[in-house]
Amino acid sequence: MSLTHHDIRLHNPEIDNSEIITSCGEFPNIPLIGRKGCINYKPMPALHQLGYTMDGEPLDKDVEDSIFFGKVENPGMLKKVQLDWTNIHRKDEVLLGRKDASVGIPYTKWVIKRVETLLVPYPQEESFH
């Protein structure tokens, strides 16, 4: 017997994540500073794991390519990231919508199309719906 989407629980309702960081300053996502440079974190794909409903396609800005730069190559951008961390944007259940961890057909179709575009192997099996 193989696993199905019903066997996997992405969301633990006992964990309180009623308010999440969605962006910092002028960045559309969350810039993260590491030892050697910066990357960014995109919270939109994780919303389903946090229990939020995924109905439609995400906005392009929510899944755009990550920034990456070394601290030495771009010290000005590093300063901007540090400054933007003083202006954190959060969203809660009122802005993010209901929590029931369901997935709509438009979102599922977007995921399949995105995976094919990125050339990630995605076996075409029967629909979850």
Provide a descriptive summary of the structure in words:
The mean pLDDT is 79. The two termini are 19 Å apart. The protein is α+β, with helices and mostly antiparallel strands and 129 residues long. The strands form 2 sheets. A 3-stranded antiparallel β-sheet has the order 2-3-4, covered by helices on one side. A two-stranded antiparallel sheet has the order 1-5. Strand 2 (30-33) and strand 3 (37-41) form a beta hairpin. It has one domain (20-117). It has helices spanning 60-63, 75-84, 93-96, 105-117, and strands at residues 19-24, 30-33, 37-41, 69-70, 88-92. It contains 4 helices and 5 strands, in the order βββαβαβαα.
Numbering strands along the chain, what is their spatial order in the largest sheet?
2-3-4
Low-confidence stretches: none
State the helix count: 4
* Largest β sheet strand count, sense and barrel closure: 3 strands, antiparallel
Q: What is the structural class?
A: alpha+beta
Write down the Rg.
Answer: 17 Å
N-C termini distance? 19 Å
Mean pLDDT: 79
Q: Total strand count, please?
A: 5
What proportion of the residues form beta strands (DSSP E)?
A: 15-25%
The helix/strand order is: EEEHEHEHH
Which term fits the overall shape? globular
> How much helicity do the residues have?
10-25%
Number of domains: 1
